[in-house]
Amino acid sequence: MKPFSQHARETVAQHGEVALIEAIRRWLGPAAPPSPTGMGDDCAVLAPLRGRPLVTVDPVIYGEHFDDRTTPREAGTKLFRRNLSDIAAMGGEPVAAVVSIACDPSLRTAWLEGFYRGLAAESRRQGVPVVGGDLARLRGGLVATLTLIGRCHRTRAVTRHGARCGDWIYVTGDLGGSLEGKHCRFTPRLAEGEWLAGQRAVRAMMDVSDGLAKDLTSLQPPRSHALLEEAALPVSPAARRAARRSGRSAVAHALTDGEDYELAFAVARNTDLAAFETRWRRAFPRLRLSRIGHFAAVEKPIPVGYTTLQAHKGFEHLRREPARRR
Amino acid sequence: MKPFSQHARETVAQHGEVALIEAIRRWLGPAAPPSPTGMGDDCAVLAPLRGRPLVTVDPVIYGEHFDDRTTPREAGTKLFRRNLSDIAAMGGEPVAAVVSIACDPSLRTAWLEGFYRGLAAESRRQGVPVVGGDLARLRGGLVATLTLIGRCHRTRAVTRHGARCGDWIYVTGDLGGSLEGKHCRFTPRLAEGEWLAGQRAVRAMMDVSDGLAKDLTSLQPPRSHALLEEAALPVSPAARRAARRSGRSAVAHALTDGEDYELAFAVARNTDLAAFETRWRRAFPRLRLSRIGHFAAVEKPIPVGYTTLQAHKGFEHLRREPARRR
């Protein structure tokens, strides 16, 4: 849906602010608890939070993360899930969200409704209330920013820092070609992240949002690099289709397309991998887990059949080239 | 400063994302704690939070909340303080901030530096770290969104709901004319808010951001309205100057200009006001406190010298009229 309309009566400018906030509350339904836990005060007041609080923030921007082909529900779902994926990457549990919208007054009321209904559906699915937000004017644009509060309660928070030379690299699910649809319809790996945080062998973890080739550099231990076994990479069918259209290899798509929202993590080198993988399959029989390589000292030669991250390039957020939907 | 530049070498697009994030970390200095408490992971991991957590989010948008006359430092300071003011309005204590920037790649690096240095200065002043954020592309625009986590630890959270008919209305500081400079240089009333939350007589509180005439409606008890004594309103010198230019009354400016970031609160009708006001003056000898009216049943006649909120109009966030800096 095109977010903006030339017909004043279809737009948010038609409604007073009070009426619009009332409508948002209605669209969110049970996803919006009453004040002061929810909308309607200067701050949202949450219940005391046991464990260590987590905070993450990510936007969706018209022309960057979604476009006219995206339904407003998908935009809302995507915004929520991007942030849930960050909580998953620490092994955390999501607690509450706030959403700040900056939009042109010509934004369609129907777009805003669909967007909030998308947020509400995801909120219900995950049991995470939308407790507040803000609505402000941005001439000619549309930016929705969600901040998600979570916590690490039952387990530690798994950071990106902790992998050592020799550790194994794993990734969940498939990679690549997410523009075909997954970028709006992925499943944040919350249960998996929490389970992995409970496994002592897991030393570092992150979610794959800008493409594995770019993201994995954050997990690399000092003086080491990731050696990826090309044949072990879980190349998605969408990446293979994209490769046929682009002329680039399917592996390149898998490593650089981004928006996979899968978990990548390092497992201690001395781990009993067979036992670890069996435990995984028992816990998550339907989600593919791939051991895709290991961290090796940079001075060692690169074995045949392996690739390094340097050979590929992930997504750069402030390029000047024409917008690409992601 | 104009945020955008035609000269590529002056812009953020010149820098890779990694270099830019490194620079942001440098500009923030001690305001940015090391990962995982700070930037550099999927989420920021905070120390366990005693008391009830508070969450608030507010943006500053180029062309709306600041313009070319605003220094980037002022924009950063304003963004931080707007959110601090919301924490103050609950009687809370700020804990940590995350900042999400959406900007055109032609954003001047110097602008971004000034902005983050403004955030850093405010962070130091309040002892509130900037623990994370996001940087994304927005064609032709600039939106910075700050989410502030706080807590109510020593006192309750004072909400907007709790005033009763007959209660007195107070406001801190002066009102009106903030565009003259206060809108970027106000002091969030954190100590005052926490003190007021400790006073049992204070039944409801909020900060004044869209103008008292609009904001106070949120404090009104059912079937009551705010009766304001015109002579008691703390009209700022800036509001008087604005009145001379605009031809509107200084009282109208005080009630509708907005961006005062003062605290408005309701005090129980049966309170010993002289004792309450004496306690205030002892705690905050340099900040004016004004008793500006009370909540009265709507059916009662309006006494001479009093005005109601209906007579004035605060700031509407999604008007279609030309942008006004605020």
Name the CATH superfamily classification of the largest domain in chain A. PurM-like, N-terminal domain
CATH class of the largest domain in chain A: Alpha Beta
- How far apart the termini of chain A lie comes to 16 Å
CATH topology descriptor of the largest domain in chain A? 60s Ribosomal Protein L30, Chain: A
Outline of chain A, from the CA principal axes? globular
Describe the structure.
2 copies of one chain form a homodimer. Chain A has 326 residues and is α+β, with helices and mostly antiparallel strands. Chain A has 2 domains: 8-152, PurM-like, N-terminal domain (60s Ribosomal Protein L30, Chain: A); 168-311, Alpha-Beta Complex (Phosphoribosyl-aminoimidazole Synthetase, Chain A, domain 2), CATH 3.90.650.10. Chain A is built from 9 helices and 11 strands. A 6-stranded antiparallel β-sheet of chain A has the order 7-9-6-10-8-11. A 4-stranded mixed β-sheet of chain A has the order 2-5-3-4, covered by helices on one side. In chain A, strand 3 (93-103), helix 3 (109-126) and strand 4 (130-137) form a beta-alpha-beta unit. Chain A is globular and about 65 Å long. Mean pLDDT of chain A is 94; it is low at 322-326. Chains A and B meet through strand 1, strand 2, helix 2, strand 3 and strand 4 of A and strand 1, strand 2, helix 2, strand 3 and strand 4 of B. Strand 2 of chain A pairs antiparallel with strand 1 (44-45) of chain B.
